[in-house]
Amino acid sequence: MIATSSFGIQSAVTLHLISQVAPQIPIIFIDTGYLFAETYRYARLLTERLQLNLHCYTPIITPAQQEALYGRLWEHSTDGLEQYLENNKLEPMRRALDTLKPHVWISGVRRSQSDTRTMRPILERQAERLKLFPIIDWSDEQVNAYPDQHHLPRHPLEADGYLSTGDWHSTTKLGSNMKPQDTRFGGLQRECGLHDNSKWKESQQ
Hints:
- The protein is of the alpha/beta class and 205 residues long.
- The chain has one domain (2-195): HUPs (Rossmann fold).
- The protein has helices at residues 11-21, 37-50, 63-70, 73-76, 78-100, 140-149; strands at residues 2-4, 26-30, 53-57, 104-106, 123-126, 129-132.
- It has a 6-stranded mixed β-sheet with strand order 3-2-1-4-6-5.
- It is globular.
- The model has no long low-confidence stretch (mean pLDDT 87).
């Protein structure tokens, strides 16, 4: 069993629940190299506070190498963005799964976060493993109240108006007439691929 975390605005909820029930579970942190500085500091703070079993995975090709060879892929086109996500999110996650070989993958995804998640069940099959979303049906009010109830630190960018904190170049604050999903990738898409079942096939190993 593993869990994944972006150490974003709402991540403390699922991480705290895991730390109370099964603190030994590996927590996979995909570090794209383009996260907000505040996210890196928050990840260290929560890891130390909750004594998390953190496993960090980074892209094989560094951000500097990617930009030197291909430019800023996320600016090129939809295809460029897809390649960027493959390089920086999906490939590192595949390595994590191949290394740890979990039968269950826990994630803090919630239905209210975007249109693409409204019909997801609490438990689903993804390739050869099960995907568990323990707070899938939690309301925004429940999630927002939880850190104060359990004396957990909040992500520094929450106070600045961010609803999520992915890569700095593809995440914006919530503006007027925007849905939460519009704050990622310029509104072109909400999912980075980690929770898109079409991206995952049965392992050949």
